[in-house]
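For the sake of clarity, the format in which proteins appear in this thesis is described at this point. The record quoted next illustrates the convention:

___
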Amino acid sequence: MKQEIIARIRCAVKFFREYGLFCFIQHVFFVVRHEEEKDYYWWSKKHRSNKKDLKKQKESRFLLEPTFSIIVSVRCADKQKRQKLIRSLRKQTYNKWEICLADGGENIAENINQALELAIGEYVVFIREEDILEINTLYECVRAINQCPEVDFLYTDEDEMSIDGKQYFHPHFKSDYNLDLLRSKNYVGHFFVLKKKIQEQVGRFCEELYYEYEYDYILRCMEVSKNIWHIPKVLYHKRISDKKEIVSDEKIKVIKKHMERCQVVTSVNMRKTSGICKVNYLFKTEPFISIIIPNRNHIDDLKRCIDSVYEISEYSNFEIIIVENGSDEKRTFMYYKDIVDQHKNVRIVTWRGIEEFNYSALNNFGVINARGKYLLFLNNDTRIINKNCLSEMVSHVIREEVGAVGAKLYYPDGTIQHAGVILGLGGIAGHAFCGEKHDAYGYFSRIQCTQNLTAVTAACMMMPRVLFDEIGGFDENLKVAFNDVDLCMKIRKKGKWIVYTPYAELYHYESKSRGIEDTEEKVTRFRGEVSYFAKKWKKELEAGDPYYNPNLTLRKNDFSLRIL
């Protein structure tokens, strides 16, 4: 034990002398703060290609064997780092590549443009000179191209690398193509592969941009690429820097230009502290929405919910449809009378179905009585927090490509109850980041970013009425559980996106009107719904959630590493 301590001290002193105080502090912070990186160390040991794999890769032959042009802007005097990049290229198990370097420009974007003029490969690869590739990166790219010859744009997972290049940590396991997330932040990163024909169509990097030239180019690529491929493997190692990361206003300019090219009227804001951007989709007039609230007794909950719609939300063009479901308390009906007398846009419709609670049937019945162009399914045990909550949801639901919009929900104590749904979590589906702190950012800021997801909760979900009718509404076989996930799955099968926005916030007092699965009858019903959903969406469950990552666990909701 004593010898181990002495060895650690010697190692620390050596590191301090070699790399200086700043890097030493970073290293200590890494060791103390990031215990989870030990898991990543062993995970990477297991998942990186071994000698047998590498030998097999080198011997492999493909129907399509394109040449990759590696584009590198030479901008720093550290030749050692650049040599490490070149060594990582020479070790590649796929050897049809060329490297195009340029250093004659006034900035990085100009260097990249000069390097592009040298490229003759069928695909161009963008990489920073201080970073390195995993030994099988190009092999995996060729493999993907042969799986989908039409692929236009590829990107991979990545991690960070210590300045000395000896440690790998902080892996970023990314979502598949996620345009709303990309409009919030550049989640793709520095490394991406592009078909030369697409590169020629997109053109040159913008030389006016000093910081966000890659972000701008990626957005331009997404505008014309039809086939975008994400390889869920850590194939790129990004070297950490001793320089402070700069949050530049160039992001706003880049996104504004992107939205103009997409011919969408928007404004853009950015959080200075995090660099996360918010795209505001503007609309001139408020479309008419029908707010559908199933209810049985629990008037205190219902009153709090409806009061928040009128007193907190600034949205004015709506109707409220309360779906009465077997209330037996006198005060409930007294409240109904008062609320209808007080507000002319409130209606009570009575469900005459069976006594057993069926959330799907109640909402379907509410929709039959709705007159709105858009539907807002809202639990009676929710309360709106921010005044622009409904406007924010409307701004997304009016987009042609969007099929449903979900909000950020909190428990009464302020912790997060819902920040989207992950398919497969816990076996079927579960809420992302449930229980996290109110202001938590989550895994790579996912809590705080507008993004596309597989599903959102119907405790607060907005969607077009026409689409609801087209897909047949809620599946009434799912009386309580997973009916909202099923609805979202049907929406996605129609080619529409599900959007989660953290800028629509509500408290959710967690289904007090339904209770918990505390009886044998409820447990039996729940198991039946699990079985029904699993059979109905078997292929999708086996394929995994495209907005999650197969390297992340389905046992916890915090996007932590999957350790087998």
Remarks:
- The chain has three domains: 1-33, 35-259, 289-543.
